[in-house]
Amino acid sequence: xxxxxxxxxxxxxxxxxxxxxxxxxxxxxxxxxxxxxxxxxxxxxxxxxxxxxxxxxxxxxxxxxxxxxxxxxxxxxxxxxxxxxxxxxxxxxxxxxxxxxxxxxxxxxxxxxxxxxxxxxxxxxxxxxxxxxxxxxxxxxxxxxxxxxxxxxxxxxxxxxxxxxxxxxxxxxxxxxxxxxxxxxxxxxxxxxxxxxxxxxxxxxxxxxxxxxxxxxxxxxxxxxxxxxxxxxxxxxxxxxxxxxxxxxxxxxxxxxxxxxxxxxxxxxxxxxxxxxxxxxxxxxxxxxxxxx
Amino acid sequence: xxxxxxxxxxxxxxxxxxxxxxxxxxxxxxxxxxxxxxxxxxxxxxxxxxxxxxxxxxxxxxxxxxxxxxxxxxxxxxxxxxxxxxxxxxxxxxxxxxxxxxxxxxxxxxxxxxxxxxxxxxxxxxxxxxxxxxxxxxxxxxxxxxxxxxxxxxxxxxxxxxxxxxxxxx
Lengths: 293, 170
Hints:
heterodimer; A: mainly alpha; Ferritin; B: alpha/beta; GMP Synthetase, Chain A, domain 3; 2 domains; three-stranded mixed β-sheet; Ferritin-like_SF (chain A); PaaC (chain A); PaaA_PaaC (chain A); oxidoreductase (chain A)
């Protein structure tokens, strides 16, 4: 043992070697999930008195499902985006959301009484167990749809996270506070593109109008968000609509009135598009349950 | 007789661990290493904070810190995750900023201040002036807000024509 820190080589070994070395309990890792790491490892996870754990779990689950399903849709743009820079941007946004989903699922498992880990939520639930808003699961018909969906969902999520940053549960509050900075970048990206496309060519404007018409029937469900987000619904709705107004006015667009599609993803009632999305996301994990390496 | 390694050593060892994605920086340079302490029973407790929620390097950082502390003679090592307060680029040390520039990566400016109430959305705002890390010119343009890692954006210098990465303010 030496006090001389120079004796410890800071650069020689590959990070994955130390990852294996750090895993010294000899247990194999599950091959397909994140397995080796609890994203809330070492965080103080006590629930304060007075916090309703069922409500907290429901909120974490819905927000985690929104993030996971959005991340999967964004990842589907890889190799298909209009430019390499946009592919990188969409993948980065998806990665942020995936990270938020992991933290929220981990918190959910701690407070819903099941003790499940993040992978159990992502890989072993069926479509009707998911509580994401249906807007998140709709397939991308073109880049304009991707932009409009991202604008709506990031604006809503940012408005909500800004309020959840002072939630009574310290873990949810910390996840939300961290997410605010990330979501600010996501919303800016979507807003910049909405402006560019809406105020762009005749064709880009037409596509933005079509995307808004496709999104509008699902907007009410996003903004309503009962039962999981009742406490903040009004303030979050106002803030979200104000942002949408600001962007659409500048882009020369408007939000068409539309009748809501019956049902609600928040109650587990989904479109036919969620099942194939989850089938792809879960296929390897379900084909080889508990597989380890 | 083996003497117990000191807290000072533990701090030095943990502080020298390189970041997996920006290996020219240490975790201390990056502000990811929040705290190192020694409990009465001799356990080293190191606290790390993730840069982004989805930072895929977190598991590696944690394993790397633990492995290096063990190699330095600490038998009991515990790594804690700290989420609050969230990481900000303001935590990157002056040494870390100089190192980034030396490696051709533009360091971040001051992080946006979080004020009470809604986060304002500014449309069509002029981008902040970012200096080229190679030639120093501020005649630069952002080509993408996102880059190969979550923490960077892509830029191009109009003066020396070189592309470069900029650690974006968070």
